[in-house]
TrEMBL record:
Pfam families: DUF2147. This is DUF2147 domain-containing protein. Residues 1-19 form the signal peptide. Keywords: Signal.
Length: 139
């Protein structure tokens, strides 16, 4: 009986730990229409967070990032890494960038879990007060 209780405790701890992670697949929502726009997969590499568009949910599946800076210019939006180099800072991830593939503009970025199934993603210029937040939904 003790073994079952220990296994159950370990299983619950594992679920809680994975629910507290920002890594995984997230559905983005269009600010104007409120409809799902894309799926972004967030991964961690060398202690930093990166987010790549792995699926486009609109009719613009073959769109390219014509206004993107540098080496991202002209690349397909599907497969584009839009979140780059965020580092853990307390209960949020910051000190990196997010790319808006429609406008081609890069912003400072901070992300923070909002419960276990929502992610608040804030892009801003200068200070956080000068930005906007989207809430993404865990897949």
């Amino acid at each position: 009986m003790k073994k079952i209780a220990v296994l159950l405790l370990v299983f619950c701890a594992t679920l809680t730990a994975s629910a507290q992670s920002v890594t995984g697949k997230w559905k983005t929502i269009d600010d104007e229409t409120g409809k799902p726009k894309s799926i972004v997969e967030i991964t961690e590499k060398d202690g930093k967070i990166y987010g790549k568009i792995i699926e486009i949910l609109s009719d613009k599946k073959d769109a390219k990032c014509e206004k993107c800076p540098g080496s991202d210019k002209g690349k397909p939006i599907k497969g584009l890494t839009i979140i780059k180099g965020l580092k853990k800072d307390g209960n949020e991830w910051s000190s990196g960038k997010i790319l808006d593939p429609v406008s081609g503009k890069e912003y400072k970025c901070v992300i923070k879990l909002n419960g276990s199934s929502k992610l608040d993603v804030r892009g801003y210029l200068g200070i956080q007060a000068l930005g906007r937040t989207q809430t993404w939904v865990r897949m």
